[in-house]
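Moderator note: this is an archived Q&A kept for reference. The question asked for a predicted structure of one protein chain; the sequence and the answer are reproduced below.
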Amino acid sequence: MSATNISIQPSSPLSMSDTESEFSSSQSLRERQPYPFNLHTTSDTFSKTCNKPPLPSDFTRNTSLESQRQYKTPAKRLSYLRERKIIGRNEESQIIDGLQYLLVTQHHATFYYLKEKKSKKTIKFRIPYSMELNGITLDVDGLCSIGEKWLVDIGVCQKSSEKDKSQKRIQRSKEAEVNGAFICILDSLGYTLDFKKLKEKVGRKTTPFLKTIALTFPDGTICSIEDVKLWGMQYDLLLNQQDVC
């Protein structure tokens, strides 16, 4: 299966600086063929205040999390912190899925994914192998470069070397940079995004994940983080149904 070129014009042009355009990928897909995902929908069919999609049949809501705050033993405390980490991770996954869903449905982007094993305890965090938008193709390294440059430019982090990082830290930084790239692209398309304030931390070892808390469309329509997460849930369901990744 070969990559499909896309030349569909989005509602507003994707503008990129000369530096960012250097990251356009001309690499052939010769190692493992990624699976494409594209929804042939238009702006008219996209609901900015979308209805909540159906939850998976095996979904269970944890109602005991708040009560665990009262536990004082180390084991119970550790269990509570682990649950909080899972919740935070799932929220990040839903947000980045929601941003991809927005780019697909509103701007005819195509994302390519490599099949990987599914997460057992958390929602799968999807990083595309490559994406196509408005005739521009970017691989994951190109997205990371754009995201890191944008995060550095706005003062969120400093450019750092990966040579002393563990594989886990490299992966976490990659996830944060791809998220930053999607935000940068949406910003160039006329969207305004608000973010959760990052905690002050000296000597960060990974690129911080900038968490979206609100999104404003070019026409002024404001969507909350809950809307973005719902789009992410819908995207996750669609990909799971099609067994894309």
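Archived answer notes: The beta strands are 35-37, 110-113, 130-133, 136-139, 192-195, 212-216, 222-224.
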